[in-house]
Amino acid sequence: MENLFQDQDIVDVKIEDSVKASYLDYSMSVIIGRALPDAKDGLKPVHRRILYAMHDLNLSSKASYKKSARIVGDVIGKYHPHGDSSVYDALVRMAQDFSMRAPLVDGQGNFGSVDGDNAAAMRYTEARMAKIAEDILKDIDKDTVNFVPNYDDTVKEPAVLPTRVPTLLLNGSEGIAVGMATKIPPHNLGELLDAILHTIDNPEVTADELMEFVQGPDFPTGGTIFGRRGIIDAYNTGRGRVKIRAKHHIETKGKKEIIVLDELPYQVNKARLIEQIATLAKEKQIEGISEVRDESDRDGIRVVIELKKDAMGEIVLNNLYKSTPLETTFGIILLAVHNKEPKVFNLPELLNIFLSHRKTVIIRRTIFDLEKAKARAHILEGLKIAVDNIDEVVKIIRASANDSEAREKLRERFELSEIQSQAILDMRLGRLTGLQIEKLEAEYAELMALIAELEAILKSEERLNEIIREELVEVKEKYATDRLTEIEDSYDEIDIEDLIPNEPMVVTITHNGYVKRVPIKSYEKQRRGGKGKVAVTTHDDDFIERFFVTNTHDTLMFVTNMGQLYWLKVYRIPEGSRTAKGKAVVNLINLRPDEKIMEIIPTTDFDESKSLAFFTRNGVVKRTSLSEFSNIRSNGVRAIVLDDADEIVTAKITNPESQYLMIFTSLGQCIRFDIEKTREQGRSTRGVRGIKFKHDSDFVVDANVVDNIEQELLTVSEKGIGKRTTVEEYRETNRAGSGVISMKLSNKTGNVVGAVLVDETQDLMALTSIGKMIRVDMNTIRKAGRNTSGVIIVNVDAKDKVVSIAKCPKEDDDELDIESADTMDGIDLNEFNLDLTNTDEKGNEE
């Protein structure tokens, strides 16, 4: 063995160095030779080789179709030493009008569909170049680009194509290399060419200036882009994210709404989308959908989503956007190869690279044409000499023994080049007629003019730019189309809020978690002691727990017994009839198992001067700045840390004018203490003790934020007994004390269910456990001392009881008094404008 190596040099190489070098070579091969497009012509090697192979086969847009298998065979046999399936897949994609903004291949046969159907086998399909591909290959035979050896060094292939079309941005590109990836969206050709024409005169143009021409991506499947921030980022930095939504319109069928999808986001599989929507509807993950069907045809996409009678189209759509690819995010990465180096470019850089490539192509084409013209002129000059001396030329030729001797004698006699003398020997006698001689002289004159023009182009930058401009305008006139993808200025501004009137609503929620909103005009006012109307139809094991009044445009904060806080706009709650059961709240917000909503607080802002006060069943109180809840995730945030066996009872908004916090218990105790006795704390804290119970069985049932002691409190018990008492009568004590008596209780009254601040510009609404709701003018309720029971407000049956009370806007004969708005525990009643009908105790209109 030693003898085998004694005459050879042995080099020690570390294995990690060898692996590193080998992997680097492999990486560069993938980056340059497979996965990434060139910034000049916008094509990956496989696409470039397919087009060049079709050019070799003379498969122009006017030629007869050839089998795809023939094209693929030429590509892998001459240029692309990889699998035939990868080449055919690339060919198929170049023919799909739903994949490319401007298809480069004209396919005949089954080339797949937007439903994800595969193309037919390559032996069944045929193809030829699309017309626009001819402009990508135009002038390739005029030495406009470099040619390099193919993989086995038997033929040459172009390193890049001399495209007149900005293919990189027109059709986009996607690819994953080693350690990097590109994702370039398609664009509108007309917009790109306008931007390039502007760049010719303004080489230092900025991305923001170019956005006056290029609005943003233009996907072949249309759709709507929400927001320009991602586009601005991508065009300035090369990276950005845009949201794309399906285009739709709403139709009506009787009393039901029908959502019709007209366009889908880019690269969304229609069949898979429909299947996903149907599955979500079947599993009740999205409520309100009765049927999904595909009515698409050759004229376009039409996916029909039929809704149930009481479903809101916009609510269903929002759930679909959240749970399905009806809304997708396209992450833009403008990465391409330039001079064999991968780099992330911004928009001006890509357009300038394209322009620079066009200049190089035109210069090389001009040089090619110039050399060809000079060569022809040189021959014509020799022919002219021959014609002028035809007798002597004929004599020399006849006296020569062979062509070589004749050629040499002609060169010596007339001082011709070898090419000229050979051209004279090849000249036919027919060229000696008078007409042919005139044509010869005319051709020579034209050539001299052409040579002068070509030389002028090479000497003038201005003339060069003029040619580029003329060619780009020609391309625009031939291929530019209208924009397909709409762009909305701001994603946040796109809201169905603009389409929904701002109206007061009664929102109810049942013990089992069904929520609905009903216009407040559905509840007519009754006299004190009235029986009320059915507010909701409930099951035997369900009952209404709470309700409140707010506007459709307000934001709702859902506070749960577990101390979590969620967000929801009022208009996203489905509107129902007065007796409708409503929708399960779990379909609107992401509640956890066994989590129960305890308070729903409407607000119009998240001013940091306000705070949110939380009150627990065991008497704990805590205040947190409202601004800390201005950005809520879909799964909510932790609002308070609770002790074991404790839960939230209610929560209230406080403002700078608030002076006192008041806590009411089931057994008739109440405490009033200064709000400053509870400092603001962060979200993930426990809070402090607010009240100490006299009895172990007692617990907190309600709480209020008080601005001054002249305000009155209306306390209501389970049997419908209530009274008005001034805050001043509830003696101020220190926090964590037992407080004072809030109501004199007995079997006739039952325990306390709640207490609200009196506002004579508002009415009281009381809710019972079997679903009755009554509206009472607060002016009809008698004032009484703190240690009294009060008067009957609601007549309840023996098996019924009051479970909740709230305030609502006061009715007048014409409209609500909007001068005294902003009185409902943080509810803004401004701009209420209602036409409500008053009734007497028997329900007759007054």
From TrEMBL:
Residues 437-478 form a coiled coil. It is an enzyme of class 5 (isomerase). GO terms for biological process: DNA topological change; DNA-templated DNA replication. GO terms for molecular function: ATP binding; DNA binding; DNA negative supercoiling activity. Its main location: cytoplasm. This is DNA gyrase subunit A. It is found in: Cytoplasm. It holds the Pfam family DNA_topoisoIV. InterPro entries: GyrA (IPR005743), GyrA/parC_rep (IPR006691), Gyrase/topoIV_suA_C (IPR035516), Topo_IIA-like_dom_sf (IPR013760), Topo_IIA_A/C_ab (IPR013758), Topo_IIA_A_a_sf (IPR013757), Topo_IIA_dom_A (IPR002205), Type_II_DNA_Topoisomerases (IPR050220). The gene is gyrA. The keyword Secreted does not apply. Signal peptide: none annotated. The lineage of its organism: Bacteria, Pseudomonadati, Campylobacterota, Epsilonproteobacteria, Campylobacterales. GO terms for cellular component: chromosome; cytoplasm; DNA topoisomerase type II (double strand cut, ATP-hydrolyzing) complex. It catalyses: ATP-dependent breakage, passage and rejoining of double-stranded DNA. Belongs to the type II topoisomerase GyrA/ParC subunit family. Heterotetramer composed of ParC and ParE. It comes from the Bacteria. Its EC number is 5.6.2.2. The active site is at 124 (o-(5'-phospho-dna)-tyrosine intermediate). SUPFAM superfamilies: GyrA/ParC C-terminal domain-like, Type II DNA topoisomerase. CDD domains: TOP4c. Few gyrases are as efficient as E.coli at forming negative supercoils. Not all organisms have 2 type II topoisomerases; in organisms with a single type II topoisomerase this enzyme also has to decatenate newly replicated chromosomes. A motif (GyrA-box) lies at residues 526-532. Keywords: ATP-binding, Coiled coil, Cytoplasm, DNA-binding, Isomerase, Nucleotide-binding, Topoisomerase. A type II topoisomerase that negatively supercoils closed circular double-stranded (ds) DNA in an ATP-dependent manner to modulate DNA topology and maintain chromosomes in an underwound state. Negative supercoiling favors strand separation, and DNA replication, transcription, recombination and repair, all of which involve strand separation. Also able to catalyze the interconversion of other topological isomers of dsDNA rings, including catenanes and knotted rings. Type II topoisomerases break and join 2 DNA strands simultaneously in an ATP-dependent manner. Residues 36-499 form the Topo IIA-type catalytic domain.
